[in-house]
Design a protein that fits this description.
Length: 136
């Protein structure tokens, strides 16, 4: 299983990486330090991701740019927006494939990861194909 971690803070990426490794022994993580790098990785990816975990506010842009890109290519890989920003805006709620978790809710993050990652090994689909759709 492949997971893309997007966050501008190295310590948060390390925390997410260790959390994922503790949740699923077959996980392979890729990391991006911002939305621009993440979108470039998604464009060039030929294998596909099972899950994307992204911060919202980053110096080079936002998680919204990643969500807009995913929506534009018709992909619905599950995304966890793991952030300190509140989500009252309906603009974010339009993304049916997104789960919102506040950075202070570490237990909620672990529950979301467990719910979104398949319990058995599975071959990811490339970014242009249809994948699991998860409601928030």
């Amino acid at each position: 299983m492949r997971v893309l971690i997007i966050d501008d803070h190295e310590d948060t990426r390390a925390l997410l990486n260790s959390t994922l490794l503790g949740t699923c022994s077959t996980v392979i993580t890729e990391q991006a330090c911002g939305s621009s790098q993440a979108i470039e990785m998604l464009i060039n990816d030929t294998v596909g991701f099972n899950l994307i975990i992204s911060d919202f506010e980053m110096p080079d842009g936002s998680g919204l740019a990643v969500l807009n890109y995913l929506e534009s290519v018709g992909n619905q890989v599950p995304v966890i927006l793991f952030t300190g920003w509140p989500f009252g805006s309906n603009e974010f709620r339009r993304f049916e494939f997104v789960t919102f978790i506040e950075k202070t809710d570490y237990d909620g993050l672990k529950r979301a990861i467990s719910a979104l990652l398949p319990s058995q090994a599975y071959f990811p689909q490339p970014m242009g194909s249809t994948t699991l759709k998860v409601a928030p």
